[in-house]
Amino acid sequence: MKNASLILSIIAIVAVAVFGILSMSGNRKPATASESAASDSTAVTAVKGDIVYLEFERILQGYDMANDNGAVLETKAQNIQSEIDRRSKKFETEYNAYMEKVNKGLITRSVAEIQGQKLQQQQQELNTFVNQKNNEMAEEQAVFMNQIVDALKTYLEKYNKEKQYSMILINQNGSPVFMAQPGLDITDEVLAGMNEEYVNNKKNN
């Protein structure tokens, strides 16, 4: 048997996925007054044929569907982490009790071997569970992002039938748009339209 610190490495397998979900949800916040004022003062001035852009992070933070689905995903991630913590603590308790008996000579060598093998199996089962949940959350997160991107694409196809821009760029972390005229930023206009459509669809369904 390896020592109980191995539990930490097992938990770490799922930590990235869970942390990603919690961080993604935690980063969503309503626009501040100064941000709102800035948005109001930079209305879209683009005309037919222009190249325009939108900020994906602002869509992700402000889109009601992203917030609703993200909250569900966050709750699931927290529940998974709680279950991992519970199982890990149980295993650690049993392992420490086993080692205490071995060190004090309270059990025979044959009994120690049997209990040690049982603990190894429990550790493998815990590792399998964590890997399974890690894959599950990674898939859930991928589906979440695909849903947002699909909703954005579907809306933009309808939106641009009216606007007829020559190109709509999706900017993320300063790429591909490093600098542009504020009036070419259609994020707020698109976000308002997507939220209105989402609310109406929820009412109808």
Explain how this protein is built.
Keywords: Membrane, Signal, Transmembrane, Transmembrane helix. InterPro entries: Chaperone_Skp (IPR005632), Skp_dom_sf (IPR024930). The chain has about 200 residues and is mainly α. The chain has one domain (about 5-205). The chain is about 75% helix and about 5% strand. It contains six helices and two strands; from the N terminus they run ααβαααβα. The chain has helices at about 5-25, 35-40, 55-60, 65-105, 110-165, 185-205, and strands at about 50-55, 165-170. The chain has a two-stranded parallel sheet. The longest helix is centred in the middle third of the chain and has 55 residues, at about 110-165. Mean pLDDT is about 85; it is low at about 1-40.
Concise account of the structure shown:
The protein is mainly alpha-helical. The protein has one domain.
Fraction of residues in H or I helices: over 70%
Number-wise, the strands total 2
Taking Cα atoms only, what radius of gyration do you get, to the nearest Å? Answer: 25 Å
Low-confidence stretches: 1-41
Order of helical and strand elements? HHEHHHEH
Q: Widest sheet: strand order? A: 1-2
Biggest sheet features: 2 strands, parallel
Categorize the overall geometry.
elongated
What proportion of the residues form beta strands (DSSP E)? under 5%
Distance between the termini: 55 Å
Q: Assembly state here?
A: single chain
Total helices: the number is 6
GO molecular function, one term: unfolded protein binding
Transmembrane segments: 6-24
Keywords: Membrane, Signal, Transmembrane, Transmembrane helix
Organism: Candidatus Cryptobacteroides intestinigallinarum
